[in-house]
Specification:
This protein is an alpha+beta fold and 412 residues long. The chain has helices at residues 56-76, 91-94, 162-169, 177-184, 187-196, 218-229, 234-243, 291-309, 326-335, 392-397, and strands spanning 2-8, 17-20, 22-24, 33-35, 40-43, 45-49, 98-106, 109-117, 122-131, 136-145, 151-155, 198-201, 203-204, 207-208, 212-213, 216-217, 248-258, 266-277, 280-285, 311-315, 345-349, 364-369, 375-379. The strands form six sheets. Strands 2-1-7-8-9-10-11 form a seven-stranded antiparallel beta sheet. A six-stranded mixed beta sheet has the order 12-20-21-6-22-23, sandwiched between helices. A three-stranded antiparallel beta sheet has the order 3-5-4, with no helix packed on it. Strand 13 (203-204) and strand 14 form a beta hairpin. The chain is globular.
């Protein structure tokens, strides 16, 4: 599970920004929190709210980027390729590296990963493990590099084979030591990644992923192919679609042939949804359904992956194309202990601010930009005097919490 994220000099965030998913055992919570093995509670739901262009998506990008870099940078980037890192747009900040720290826990233990990097190299990395005996983090792996190409890799307690890892990193200043460790096949690195868990997101470097393809989306085909390969999830999908009350009683997955504007035709699969009509049942291909139905289907594919294996879903604009009344149904997937037996988390942005009343104050993050156009984030419980039982939606709309747009009416 993800416990805590901090970062600086990234996208629209300049100073250190902290996203804490934990709260104390004394905090009054509900089924949207779980007790950890470390005398605290971890949120299964965390929502991000604020004006347009305040930096909400960038907050999600930070988690998406650091998880990508930890796990996939070695195999996804060529040795001479630049790191897909967007530092703060100020001139001074561009000369400074970005910093990330991610704390997470799983079956292998509780870990804290930190990295300092710029677009062409990693300056330093560290991996620490929490000791219940001492109540402290101890360093188990470090990596430092210099502009001249020098490299130091050190380990404690014989965590891994340093020589093997150093060889993998010799010509890879743009890759994480954890991603390099995975490539060596050493099982200790797999255990670390298992503790991190699966991170599934619709956030790319350019923002929310939108990929049109011949009137459909590549995501739609990918979703159909996923469910075709995993019939064990069909009952769950059928139940979720029915619960959403969008007029679908069943579905079928059929082979289709796609002819793109350029390139060769290919065979794939597409979902056809079954509806109960006035003159009997009928089917509609996914591309003929409403944008809301397509969006819901793609969200379900993401959530089923996470709910069945554990991890975190990082979703930008979760309400996009959906009726507000559907959002609580989606949230309930993560708060139902039977459905979410793996304690998966959901980290999302949302413009339907009425959703504030479906979260606790420890699960609400507001983002706004200051006068210098720098994004700032804060958790609602950091504000003094916010009571647990108050109407967050009404108070936010009244401007009590800040992070609310104040547009002017333009007269023509």
């Amino acid at each position: 599970m993800i416990r805590r994220l901090s970062f600086s000099n990234f996208c629209s965030f300049l100073e250190e920004t902290v996203v804490d998913f934990t709260t104390t055992l004394k905090t009054s919570t509900d089924d949207s929190f779980v007790h950890s093995d470390f005398d605290d509670q971890v949120a299964l739901l965390t929502g991000v709210f604020g004006p347009n262009a305040a930096g909400k998506t960038n907050l999600l990008k930070a988690l998406s980027f650091v998880s990508f870099f930890m796990r996939d940078s070695y195999r996804s980037l060529e040795p001479d390729e630049t790191i897909p890192l967007d530092r703060f747009a100020g001139a001074d900040a561009d000369d400074q590296p970005a910093r990330f720290e991610l704390e997470f826990d799983g079956a292998a233990g509780r870990f804290r990963y930190a990295v300092v990097l710029c677009s062409n190299r990693v300056h330093e990395e560290s991996l620490k493990q929490f000791s219940k005996k001492t109540g402290q983090f101890r360093q188990i792996l470090t990596r430092k590099s210099t502009e001249a190409g020098g490299l130091q890799v050190r380990t404690a307690d014989s965590f891994t084979e340093v020589t093997l890892l150093r060889e993998a990193l010799n010509d890879r200043p743009n890759a994480s030591m954890l991603a390099a460790g995975l490539q060596t096949g050493r099982k200790e690195f797999k255990h670390i990644m298992d503790a991190l868990g699966l991170v599934v997101t619709n956030v790319t470097r350019g923002g929310k992923r939108e990929q049109p393809f011949e009137g459909l989306t590549t995501d739609l085909f990918a979703c159909s192919e996923f469910f075709q390969k995993h019939p064990e999830h069909h009952d769950a999908l059928r139940e979720l679609l029915t619960a959403a009350d969008i007029g679908i009683s069943d579905f079928a997955i059929k082979p289709v042939r796609i002819q793109p504007a350029q390139g060769e035709a290919r065979e794939t699969f597409l979902v056809f949804f079954v509806h109960d009509g006035a003159k009997g049942t009928f089917e509609l291909a996914a591309d003929q359904e409403s944008s809301g139905t397509r969006r819901l289907f793609m969200l379900f594919e993401t959530f089923i992956k996470i709910l069945s294996s554990g991890g975190i879903a990082v979703i930008d604009e979760m309400e996009s194309d959906l009726h507000p009344h559907l959002i609580p149904t989606i949230l309930s997937l993560f708060t139902n202990a039977e459905i979410n037996a793996q304690q998966a988390q959901l980290f999302f942005t949302c413009h339907h601010v009425e959703m504030l009343n479906h979260l606790l104050k420890e699960q609400i993050i507001f983002v706004e930009k200051n006068e210098q156009c720098v994004s700032e984030a804060f958790r609602l419980d950091e504000l003094k005097g916010v009571r647990r039982e108050e109407n967050f939606f009404a108070n936010y709309n009244s401007g009590r919490y800040g992070a609310i747009p104040e547009p002017e009416v333009v007269a023509f």
